[in-house]
Design goal:
The protein is of the alpha/beta class and 315 residues long. The chain has ten helices and ten strands. Helix 3 crosses helix 10 and helix 4 packs across helix 6.
Length: 315
């Protein structure tokens, strides 16, 4: 499989062939409960769980009730920098458990505390429930720095796919609403434009795990209607002003339908004067950050992105 003279990673080809042989249905062909069950299969692709200093579950106050969070702490004494993480899954599937192994890997890659947020999901809670929960959790982290043993001057946000959307939105809300101050935003193949037309959605719309049909299915469950497409809390690329945001690392994959909008967001940030490092992975499919156990390339992406976040943390 090639695209623009670039060959799809051999391990990714093997993985996709295995999924096809198993008869895995597209998410757009599933009911919500079935899709959520299917998401659990990704846990088997994530490799072995890495040891961290401690893991604890808590709830934090949100706009519509308590929000579950999981706090992972790195070894070492003293206040640690913190990464607030929002899982992917199209705002419909995925949860703290599915994101557990990637969060552990992030703790060790960064040498920092990671707080994973179990925000409300659609269709039970449609837009803007998820971004409001994610912002509330980030504020809670900043307000409870002493209890958490973290440094409130070194807070970053991160997320993959729909979680990348939420991290980008939280970074915008942090400026718009007067805090908390963030030092970095790590956007892993983010969905940043609910209604745009991009070549990658056509080129990669079938056959590479995330399909155009699945994207439409996720958005149909998440958004209340077409008017939400224009809202920057749903489509952060459509914000009128991106200046003053935290520096960003934007990760994209060559065989990902979200490739082009991620690249467009990195360019828009740069044009607005926001430092943005676009780290493109030309041989990768969507979801590769959750596939450390199946794709050898994934570790190098963690290390490359981690170097930026560690620099932002001053470590």
């Amino acid at each position: 499989m090639t695209l623009d003279a670039q060959t799809l990673d051999a391990q990714a080809q093997t993985l996709l062939a295995a999924m096809e042989a198993q008869g895995m249905k597209d998410f757009s062909e599933m009911e919500v409960a079935e899709a959520r069950e299917a998401a659990l299969a990704f846990i088997g692709l994530e490799g072995e769980p890495e040891d961290v200093a401690s893991v604890s579950d808590a709830t934090v106050p949100g706009p519509a009730g308590d929000i579950p969070v999981r706090v992972y702490r790195a070894p070492g004494d003293g206040p640690q920098p913190v990464l607030v993480y929002f899982h992917g899954g199209g705002w419909v599937i995925g949860d703290i458990e599915v994101a557990d192994k990637p969060c552990r890997s992030l703790v060790n890659t960064l040498g920092a505390t990671v707080v994973s947020v179990g925000y409300r999901k659609a269709p039970e809670d449609t837009f803007p429930a998820a971004p409001e929960d994610c912002y509330a959790a980030t504020v809670w982290v900043a307000d409870n720095a002493a209890t958490l043993g973290i440094d409130p001057a070194r807070i970053a946000v991160a997320g993959d796919s729909a979680g990348g959307n939420l991290a980008a939105v939280v970074a915008q809300l942090a400026v718009k609403r007067g805090g908390p101050t963030l030092v970095h935003q790590l956007l892993i193949y983010p969905a940043v434009d609910a209604g745009g037309e991009y070549a990658s959605r056509v080129e990669n719309g079938e056959g590479y795990l995330l399909t155009k049909s699945a994207m439409d299915w996720f958005y149909a469950h998440y958004l209340r209607g077409p008017a939400d497409i224009e809202d920057p809390m749903a489509s952060p690329l459509r914000a009128a002003d991106l200046s003053g945001l935290a520096p960003a690392t934007v990760i994209t994959g060559g065989f990902d339908p979200l490739r082009d909008e991620g690249a467009a967001y990195a360019r828009a940030l740069t044009a607005a004067g926001v430092p943005a490092d676009h780290q493109h992975n030309p041989t990768m499919i969507h979801g590769f950050w959750w596939m450390m156990g199946a794709l050898e390339h994934t570790r190098s992406s963690y290390d490359q992105a981690g170097a930026n976040v560690r620099s932002a943390f001053g470590i």
